[in-house]
Amino acid sequence: MKTFPIGGVHPSDNKQWSKGSAIEVMELPDVVNIPLAQHIGAPATAIVKKGDTVVVGQKIAEATGFMSANIHAPISGTVTAVDMQPNGQGLRQMMITIKREGDEWSEAIDRTDTLVTECNLEPKAIIEKIKEAGIVGMGGATFPTHVKLSIPDGKKAEILIINGVECEPYLTSDYRTMLERGEQLVAGTRILMRAIGVTNAVIGVEANKPDAVKHLKSIIGSAADIKVQMLKTQYPQGGEKQLIAAVTGRQVPAPPALPIDVGAVVCNASTAVAVYEAVQKNKPLIERVITVTGSAVAQPKNLLTRFGTPIEALIAKCGGLAEGDVKVINGGPMMGRALSNIAMPAMKGCSGITIMVGDAAKRGVESACIKCAKCVEACPMGLEPYLLSKQARKKAWDAMEANDITSCIECGCCQFTCPANIPLLDYVRLGKQTVMGIIRARNMKK
Amino acid sequence: MNTLIYTILTLCIIGVVAAVVLYFVAQKFKVEEDPRIDETEKMLPGANCGGCGFPGCRGLATALVESDDISALYCSVGGDECMGKIAAYLGKEAPKKEPAVATVRCGGTCEKRPRTNSYDGATSCAIASALYVGETGCAYGCLGYGDCVAACAFDAIHINPQTGLAEVDADKCTACGACVAACPKGIIELRKRWPKNRAIYVSCVSKDKGAVTMKACKAGCIGCRKCEKVCEFGAITVENNLAFIDSTKCRLCRKCVAECPTGAIKMIGLAPLVKKEEVKEEK
Amino acid sequence: MANKFFVSPAPHVHSDYSTARLMGDVVIALLPALMVSIRVFGWNVLAITAVSIASCVLLEFLVQKYLVKGPVTVNNLSAVVTGLLLAMNLPANIPLWIVVIGAVVAICVAKMPFGGLGKNIFNPALAARVFLLIAYPVQMTSFPAPTMDGFVDAYSGATPLGAAKAGLVDFASFDAPGMFVGAMGGSFGEISALALLLGFVYLLMRRVISWHTPVAILGTMALFATIFAGIHFEEPSMHLLFPLFHILAGGALLGAIFMATDYVTSPMTTKGMVIYGIGIGAITMCIRLWGAYPEGMSFAILIMNSVVPLINKYVKPKRFGARK
Predict the structure, then answer these.
(1) Three-class DSSP category at A289
(2) Is the CB of residue B127 less than 8 Å away from at least one CB of chain C?
(3) Which pTM was predicted?
């Protein structure tokens, strides 16, 4: 079975808890906080003010420049504040607060279930619609989709890869989307192919989801343009570079090279569904499927949630937090961010909430490095995490740059595998951020 | 006997050949350097703390010797005395600076600033601060994982386990600025050093609104401007909900300390002001 | 609320690897070889092993507690592995006081002065063995003859390698199947190839070590021996028997599987492991064929241990996306 060329680990996927529960619609919240920074790039600029009334799907914040994304009202009601509010990490960010009144939708949105596969729009018009709908990568990186689809001059896309791998343990939101919204996913895939001008696409799915593979294959039928590729269950199979390598055999060179340099464009499965809705139904990105799961969650669920809904409401819906030591993670356990504030609103990049309890909420005790080389073996980018983390502790930034720290994808394989429980990635990430800052400053000088 | 002679002879020849080779190599790779750099380096404290902005004392010594105007170069560890000596030796005008001391501007002790969560990552302020606000509700306060302690070459700053805050040992502090650069929250400031290490400063850097600050910490500056009004020397300014005392204008009159409702203005080495009347009488 | 929230950077899950588990697996992998030795040399073997392990653990405990005054980490089982490996590198009739001296060298000279686990340059068990070999050559090289019924005929056995060195062995008649299961003289851990290979399979299955180092060592030795045999022996049967003899005899398997793969003193990359293995194999064969000692595994590993930092510095793993 196809997989990426180097490294990788095999964490227990623990998807059994939530994979069986069909997507459920989460109740509408009474008040939502909508952060203006839900994507990579410049935060959007608010275009509503206190006292304005809004309807579902109305644009409330406009992209600030090209590398940014629009934001739309997920509920109808009155804007009560445009102010700083704490995010999941407790940092105060600009957010638009809306108090809900009913559930009134913008008239432009087609809310029917009819499947519209026909799309005759020009590529430019498709990308413009996607931009208007505020779609960003929904796998977690939240890279604005219209930027990804705008192929730079001189480059040519050859293949579209739809990322249905969901290698992150615990999470099942993409899995449920593939099972329940497969037709929309395939239609969205064809729209994306048209937008970037390619004639073939591959949907990559990890081997632990054979029913999703079967379902998608049955939808595609005999059509030759889209292929469903089953990939080995191995983390980080869904990393953009790993996925491209697994599917096409081509390796994206070290940064600043991008996937397009090997002719590939990768989009998440949920993003493809969102693209379908935006282009065919005029529906902007206002909701997504969020998995709430964990060993101690009473009823793990996949919830179709409007953005801005507090995370604690989602947790309460699934049975609430167990008493004692907990760690609430925005995302999965390998790359998700631990929250210090569970009142945080659900956002575009939030694919799941993972709850760890008891000893699993805490890290093991660090001991001495025994130079077992397991981190080097596990690194999917062929780096030497033990060395990089040592250099970061010594603040040897030049040496880190020479050892290709900028290639690190922060997947966490090194720290996952380390028998001595050394916080390798903590230091490697610090070093990467510092070195990237140094490189940016150097480029600015030039 | 022959063996002995041959051995000694061979060794001697090897030695001579090696010496000759070494001599020529040394000649070829010799670096011409101003001998004054060595002398200047000897006059510097030799702590290699990096406080001057150069990687070590030799870097500063080279810069001192090579540049004509040395007014921008300063070794805060050696102070005016050391710089005067070097300037005299080099025949240049000595740069002068007022003595300073590192000041930790956070009063959020464990008591005043309740913990809302438990940090479980690597023990480093830089890593914790890149991740989130920290273990309390305050996004500006001291994290207490000791990046400043690790940066200090003079053993002058420590984390007090009782308060969870960094504390400066003013007698050991050389104002090199290493801790200022190391603190990801920008809490540490180099302030004017008064005699007997006396000081008055705002022990808070929170720019949050008063209500938000108050919720997170009982010792924070809420930007109420009472201190600004009471200051007779125009030393206090309030910007972004945060008071700042300009140490060059402050005369240590202590009125602001008495006025501050949260105790965010701290003083060191001074007796508290008892009554306002007494101060007026003194004048 | 009765919740205590924990916050840390990702990742939030951990594999089931721990230092103690990995070390424990090494101990388990050595058990078959130990059992064969007990069967062949008698209960003395167990006494030596017990004394060696106990002294190593005790010494590490004492050094950590009273000299370094740091945390005591003997529960990570690394001292147990050192003790066990040291014991298995000794003859079965060694006086126990020499075992204790070996433990002192292993822990108090080769390991702790460098900073303890993870920081030593040389494999502690091997450093101790080589020290004993030089300090007590008589006791270290008089091996009891193996007897399968538990009877030990002391001071009469010679190792196959020693015999070969002295020109006493008739290669054509050497007992390959016997050597494979353990009927040969030598340090008590090295005699049974079968038991050692069983341990190797276990270590590979548990993903404790990778195959690169052992295969590189044994491959190099076999290649070296084949070329040597091709030049020096007329009869074609020797071209096969000679390499086989060198892999089965002496400490080749014990060294390749258990000593050279010691985490701390071996390279960090697979490419590095192969270079390291080739170095060990080549040096071992040079010592065996042309050196003063009949056996060269220990010296070869120690010599290559000293090169490991250099290998780690210059041999980098292949980066993802690197141009070929």
Answers:
(1) strand
(2) yes
(3) 0.90
Res C242: pLDDT? 85
Q: Is A297 on the interface with C (CB under 8 A)?
A: no
Give the minimum alpha-carbon distance from B127 to chain A in angstroms, rounded to a whole number. Answer: 6
- Where in B195-264 does DSSP place strands (E)? 199-202, 236-239, 242-245
Q: Which of C2, C14, C268 shows the shortest C-beta gap to A373?
A: C268
Q: Is A101 exposed, middle or buried, given 0-12, 13-18 or 19+ CB atoms closer than 10 A?
A: middle
Arithmetic mean of pLDDT, A5-10: 94
Spell out which chain C residues touch chain A, with contact meaning CB-CB distance below 8 angstroms: 2-15, 17-19, 21-22, 73, 76, 78, 116-119, 210, 263-264, 266-270, 312, 316-323
C-alpha distance from A407 to closest chain C C-alpha (Å): 8
The proportion of chain A whose per-residue pLDDT surpasses 70, expressed as a percent, equals 100
Whether a cis peptide bond, with omega within 30° of 0, leads into B261 is: no
Question: A92–B208: do the CB atoms touch at under 8 Å?
Answer: yes
For residue A337, the chain B residues in CB contact (below 8 A) are 131-132
* Residue-level pLDDT, tens digit, chain C, 324 residues: 568 899 999 999 999 999 999 999 999 999 999 998 888 888 889 999 999 999 999 999 999 999 988 889 899 999 999 999 999 999 988 999 999 999 999 999 999 999 989 999 999 999 999 999 999 988 888 777 665 544 444 444 557 777 676 665 556 556 677 777 776 777 888 888 899 999 999 999 999 999 999 999 999 999 999 999 888 888 787 788 888 888 888 889 999 999 999 999 999 999 999 999 999 999 999 999 888 888 889 999 999 999 999 999 999 999 998 865
Write the ipTM.
Answer: 0.90
Q: Does B15 touch chain C (CB under 8 A)?
A: no
Which residue on chain B is closest to A428 by alpha carbon? B127
* Shortest Cα distance, chain C CAs vs residue A332, angstroms: 8
Instruction: Determine the residue type at A335.
Output: M
Using CA atoms, how far apart are residues A190 and A159, in angstroms rounded to an integer?
A: 12
Helix (H) or strand (E) holding A373: none
Question: Which residues pair with residue C5 across a beta bridge?
Answer: A326
Q: Tell whether A233 is within 8 A of chain C (Cβ).
A: no
Minimal-distance CA residue of chain A relative to B126: A430
8 Å CB contact of A324 and C3? yes
CA A182 to chain centre: 19
Residue A74: cis peptide before it, omega within 30 degrees of 0: no
Count H helices, E strands: chain C?
Answer: 14, 3
Interchain CB distance below 8 Å, C5 and A374: no
Interatomic CA distance for residues B128 and B136, integer angstroms = 12
Which of C268, C280, C272 lies closest to C304 in space, CA to CA? Answer: C280
CB contact under 8 A, A386 and C268: yes
Residue B26, CA distances (Å) to A201, A231, B30, B31 in order = 65, 61, 6, 9
Q: Measured between beta carbons, which residues in chain A are less than 8 angstroms from residue C276?
A: none
- Lowest mean per-residue pLDDT among A203-212, B32-41, B118-127: B32-41
CA separation for the pair A148, A162 (Å, rounded): 13
Can you tell me the distance from the alpha carbon of B112 to that of B103, in angstroms, rounded to the nearest whole number?
A: 19
Q: Report the gap between the CA of C7 and the closest CA in chain A (Å).
A: 5
Q: Is the pLDDT of residue A319 over 70?
A: yes
Q: In chain C, whose CA is at the least distance from the CA of B118? A: C6
Tell me the shortest Cα–Cα distance from A129 to chain B, in angstroms.
Answer: 34
